Description:
- Chain A is mostly helical.
- Chain A is built from eleven helices and no strands.
- Chain A has helices at 2-13, 17-43, 46-53, 57-64, 67-89, 95-112, 114-125, 132-155, 165-181, 183-189, 197-214.
- The interface between A and B is large, with 57 and 57 residues.
Amino acid sequence: MGNGIVAEKVRSSTRSKEKIREENERIILIAAEKVFAKHGLKGATTKQIADMAKLPKSNIHYYFHTKLNLYRCVLESILVDWMKAADTFNTFNEPREAFRYYVGAKMDLSRIRPFGSKVWANEIISGAPEMEAILSSRLKKWVDTCVGSINTWVELKKISNVGDAHTLLYMIWATTQHYADFEYQVKILNNGKRLTDEEFEEKKQQVIDLVLRSVGLNP
Amino acid sequence: MGNGIVAEKVRSSTRSKEKIREENERIILIAAEKVFAKHGLKGATTKQIADMAKLPKSNIHYYFHTKLNLYRCVLESILVDWMKAADTFNTFNEPREAFRYYVGAKMDLSRIRPFGSKVWANEIISGAPEMEAILSSRLKKWVDTCVGSINTWVELKKISNVGDAHTLLYMIWATTQHYADFEYQVKILNNGKRLTDEEFEEKKQQVIDLVLRSVGLNP
DNA sequence: TTATAACTTGACCAAATAGTCAAATAATTT
DNA sequence: AAATTATTTGACTATTTGGTCAAGTTATAA
Lengths: 219, 219
């Protein structure tokens, strides 16, 4: 027992300042993502975030200064993952593979990082006051590229004429993110039990099939 | 000008108590729906709701006592419209018509009452603390009926095998509600301009077509 | 070892806010 | 007309909460 405490002390005393900052910022970001997801920007309190991170409240302010700044950092960190999933869409030339992998990646993200998706949803629902700039630049550009690909596939008769390609993209976003944002509703309608990994994989395949059929491709 | 004031005075002085209560409750509910949609339960302040309703704050408390009670009333009033749209699904025996009208009704609701949809979304995202009971009773029952219909259609080979029918329902909900909950994002990606009525009707038709194809029906 | 810079944390404060209350006014009943 | 009941509203309060600060501790550089 004594050894354990000493060992911990030693390890702690050798943690470099750099590592300390890195680790604490990570811990705080993870805690903040959860709390913001549940309560929104205004509803979340720095005390709640501190408790979740198991740190004193002053520490949160030390590392992130204001609640709003912390919130922005959370949004940015979510965007990184989001853009990674987005990239998968453009790494395939054939619509079947592009949709299959993109929808799959979005579903995985909903499963792995549901809190991030919820924070994002909250932000958009409340008018995207902090994210409008990013949406109308980075996201817009990515969407324009996707719309181009989809339109080409329609012209080449590789998929059905879906009208405005945005409609299709929105359907994919909405459907995949539903499993993160509305997971409590999904849980309730699954007899109160959270989807198991197996059930989720099944859902993922079904969503992929629905999307493929919706553009006239046979799964 | 003088006449206007007098006329108003007279009309006001003949307003019955019953009408006064009815009208004020309506005004407050509409204002609250907007404010709750934008800021969530905790983020919304009774002052904001009062200002939106053009009434003093005390008046809000006089009619609804607490903020939480007002919030519950807003949720309930949304549920009424929601269930009306839900009914359309079971008034058709053929899948093509059922999906067409149900998806249409949900899209219309997103257009007409976007704030209600947002309040609902916020509630589910934050864990449905006020609505869990309703979800696991009324909504669950309705969903079970729908799932039954869909499964029958699959058995009769009227639509493709969609696997778990819940997946399809979630896709419909998510896609239609996206136009309410994420309307700011839709606006930004539509070059900053809100969808016109004509554009929305087009989207509605495209969403219907996507859904029909997704279950193997030719639109 | 010493000096310095970075991290930790409890105590504190000013602003915001849900809810109360009492006094005034308006509708309704007797 | 008087009494009663319902509505209106400004003033007030207790509590919550974002943010500060100063005093202490720990790592690092000189």
